[in-house]
Amino acid sequence: MTEIFKGSFTQQEPIPEAGIDAALAVLRHGRLHRYNTIAEEISETALLEQEFAASVGAKYCLAVASGGYAMATALRAVGVKPGDPVLSNAFTLAPVPGAIAAVGGRPVFVGVTEALTIDLDDLAQKADAAKVLLLSHMRGHICDMDRLMQICDAAGITVIEDCAHTMGAAWNEVPSGRHGAVGCYSCQTYKHVNSGEGGFLVTDAAEIAARAVILSGSYMLFERHLAAPPKEAFEQIRYETPNISGRMDNLRAAILRPQVADLATQCARWNERYSCLEQGLRDTPGLTVIDRPEQETIVGSSIQFLLLDWPARDVRDVVARCAARGVELKWFGGAKPVGFTSRYDSWRYADTPAMPDTDRVLAGIVDMRVPLTFSLQDCALIARIIRAEVSAVFQDQSTAAE
Ligand SMILES: *Cc1c(COP(=O)(O)O)cnc(C)c1O
After folding, report:
1. From the CB of 162, is ligand 1 less than 6 Å away?
2. 92 lines ligand 1 (CB under 6 A)
3. Among candidates 43, 126, 138, 41, which has minimal Cα distance to 89?
4. Are 62 and 190 in contact (CB under 8 A)?
5. Ligand 1 atom nearest to CA at 187
6. Quick check: CB of 67 below 6 Å from ligand 1?
7. Contact 309, 364 (CB under 8 A)
8. Res 341: pLDDT
9. Ordered structural domains, the chain, with CATH
10. CA 400 to centroid of ligand 1, rounded, Å
């Protein structure tokens, strides 16, 4: 009997009851704007920032409208100007080069390794090409952050971390987002906390934080923040910094606060699912599992494997055969961008020379979301399906080669 998976790859869990109650309270009093407070009231947004800052051990936190907005704001706040080059990953999602483009910057892409992390040799070579690196921990894979920071510190490069896939993850016990000057996170539905849209920016640098607060649209109400620098930090900055509105609102903040409090539990649940999938896929002929370094604390909200050096039509065949059995895989090797997957050469505004080593890895990356609505049994079944279909196509490949 051929097993078929019937679950949904895009179904989230409901918002926790505490979040629903808090959201209803905000709807009832009507003060949704973060600065719309009465008397001694502290807004949900200010509380959320304080709680998120504490959760990652950051001095300052700003909640904003999206992860993409957090990244663009971070780039502006560290001083990126129109025309400036900004280093970033060739393997990432479109909002990352998009944030660079949003500030008029010019993305300079750094390659990807078979570990799916930024190629640090390539980074070292390109280190004098830019003063800022927007580092994407794409699909949750964290590179050797100690070596990355050495390279960047030596070259005077400011690091902004895109932690859209690593909220709750760490390298050498330092939370993702806390190695560079600024960490950016997304609270969009497909990430680790869900308010539909939303994002955070964290930093220990008072000047960057103050600029970000003004940029986000605080007007002169920055004293109503609980995780912003003291008012002296705004003295000059408030005159020099434009308002580019992108605030978080109290309704989203109310939904998010219980999720931030619950993040560690949710991460552990993701990791149970991830390890079940990984075990099921290990030692499949032709398939390379991505081994995770021991310094990395992962959040397995998605899983990747490589069909390295496979002919494109065979990878397509695997994706189609798995889809026929209810398993949705995404392939980063397609010539045209599809759904969420696009590649550095799809972002033609950046005008990037070909990167053959990166192309080889991208051509082999197969990706799967792991929603928490999957049970461990679901994960075991999905792994059996992928294993069977990869093995079948690989078998034909070897037979054809004989
Ligand atoms: C989703 C995502 C973002 C941006 O998040 P939005 O909140 O959708 O703007 C940034 N980087 C990566 C890698 C992402 O997947």
Report:
1. yes
2. yes
3. 138
4. no
5. 7
6. yes
7. yes
8. 86
9. 17-261 (3.40.640.10), 263-401 (3.90.1150.10)
10. 41
